[in-house]
TrEMBL record:
The lineage of its organism: Archaea, Thermoproteota, Thermoprotei, Desulfurococcales, Pyrodictiaceae. One of its GO terms (cellular component) is plasma membrane. It comes from the Archaea. Belongs to the UPF0104 family. Keywords: Cell membrane, Membrane, Transmembrane, Transmembrane helix. The keyword Transmembrane helix applies. This is TIGR00374 family protein.
Length: 305
């Protein structure tokens, strides 16, 4: 079977990749996951929950696997993370859910900042970033609505799922957001992760010999997030690769170099992360967490296979 010319070219570029930059890309990814684990520990301790670093790290790896095998716009992974922490600590799942929602609100700050940087960079380059501008305002509106109505939505959902007795107003989203020190620390940690994500795309590009202004990868990082959230395939497979390759080509890479860059990134964030996540689920509290998720999902009328 003949290999398409565009794929053959990408494989040739990949075969000449600088292994030092590939390893650096891997290190940046592991560092990002570690910071995510620390961030959750900080938030959990604020609400009186003690979770060990290794358990928080493992919970994130397990959630990455679930994200990579389900078309759930990352929701499935968050549920796995919550269930994993529940197995390890016995903390009411509603409290854990609130901490995850708070993290997402804090994470919107660097995302909005990255989108603003991407818009500025595109305008300077003479482009018309209509899609990013629309995304920018949608994120801002989504965060505002989430902060205002999350507690009410959660209360309704909790009663339907039989969690009503576990609602705790002392850890509501509004109270967590009003905690200035917690908010600042969480935003700073989230910002560091997003900077590392931009650098990860940059080092993946350097690995195949593509040198472009680092700010270009801020735009790519934002679009990477959007494509991943909108993808309807498990882990966004196929859609994410195609979308990110198109973004890199638009940013000046040749098709073969763009695809080779995406291959390195996805080999790490999809292949490596899924493998480690699977090992965590097998060796850790994953089976119990999955059983718990199945029992809760049955109450919604949907049972995952």
């Amino acid at each position: 079977m003949e290999v398409p010319e565009w794929l053959s070219g990408s494989l040739q570029v990949l075969s000449r990749a600088d292994i030092r930059y590939v390893l650096l890309t891997l290190v940046l990814y592991i560092t990002s996951v570690s910071i995510y684990a620390v961030r959750w520990i900080v938030v959990l301790r604020k609400v009186g929950v003690k979770l060990r670093f290794r358990d928080s790290f493992a919970a994130y790896l397990a959630s990455i696997l679930v994200n990579n095998i389900t078309p759930s716009a990352r929701a499935g992974g968050e549920l796995m993370r919550i269930a994993y922490a529940y197995i390890k600590t016995g903390t009411p799942m509603i409290k854990l859910l609130n901490t995850v929602a708070f993290e997402r609100i804090c994470e919107s700050v660097p995302v909005i900042s990255l989108a603003a940087i991407a818009i500025f960079e595109a305008l300077v380059a003479g482009d018309k970033p209509i899609g990013i501008i629309v995304e920018f305002f949608l994120i801002v509106a989504g965060v505002a609505i989430g902060v205002k109505y999350w507690d009410k939505i959660l209360a309704i959902a909790a009663r339907k799922l039989g969690f009503g007795d576990n609602l705790d107003s002392s850890v509501s989203i509004k109270r967590l957001v009003k905690d200035r020190s917690l908010f600042i620390v969480t935003v700073v940690l989230s910002s560091i992760v997003w900077i590392l994500d931009v650098l990860r795309l940059y080092t993946a590009a350097l690995a195949v010999g593509w040198e472009a202004p680092p700010l270009r990868f801020a735009l790519a990082s934002v679009m990477y997030l959007v494509v991943g959230l909108l993808a309807v395939t498990p882990g966004g497979i196929g859609i994410v690769e195609g979308g990110l390759t198109a973004v890199f080509i638009a940013l000046g890479a040749s098709p073969s170099v763009a695809l080779a860059t995406v291959m390195i990134e996805r080999l790490i964030s999809y292949g490596f992360a899924s493998l480690i996540g699977l090992l965590v689920i097998i060796a850790g509290g994953g089976p119990q967490a999955w059983t718990l998720l199945r029992s809760r999902w049955r109450q919604t009328g949907f049972t995952p296979r």
